[in-house]
Amino acid sequence: MGFFDFLKKAPEAAPAFPMMVAADAKGTVVPMEQIPDEVFAQGILGKCCGIDPSEGKVYSPVDGTITQAPDSGHALGIQGTGNVEVLIHVGVDTVEMKGDGFSPKVKEGDKVKKGQLLLEMDLAKIAAANHPAVVITVVTNTDDFKDVELVASGTVEPGADLLKVSK
User: Name one GO biological process term (predicted).
Assistant: First the structure.
């Protein structure tokens, strides 16, 4: 496949690019390299960033469909518009909590809108388990796009522009 072949295959009514992936939590932006987990910090799963949450709520960063909702409640996969695949991972090593402190509000197959509440988490329980609570937002199919870049810094509110995805 030629480098520019992807330009020819634009689907009808394609969403406008660059597309924004919104902040999915209220808190302080953590650049990818500073996420306290090597897999995410090195971008192995895709370009990403974190938000150190100041409240225990996670909202949808895109319009789309929930593709992954493990019982542990600490992560969600979303197939967003424009084929942007987003993984939200709440905390580092929080899978070890086996769902304690997490209450998902959506299930696999649900359609979601940007800004919709996806899950609640107990920040005190996460802290008590000695896990960073950073909410990590990953564009897992980064390679399908020209660029995924962090456009936010400092403190953000849910819905603020966070990651810019360019085709």
Answer: phosphoenolpyruvate-dependent sugar phosphotransferase system
**Ramachandran assignment for 24, one of left (phi > 0), alpha (psi -120 to 50 degrees), beta (any other):** alpha
Catalytic positions are: 89
pLDDT in tens, 60-110: 999 999 999 999 999 999 999 999 999 999 999 999 999 999 999 999 999
User: Measured between alpha carbons, how far is 27 from 111 in angstroms, rounded to an integer?
Assistant: 25
Sheet holding 19-22, edge to edge: 19-22, 161-166, 147-150
CB 120 within 8 A of CB 56: yes
SS (H, E, C) 29-42: EEEHHHCCCHHHHC
The residue count for the chain: 167
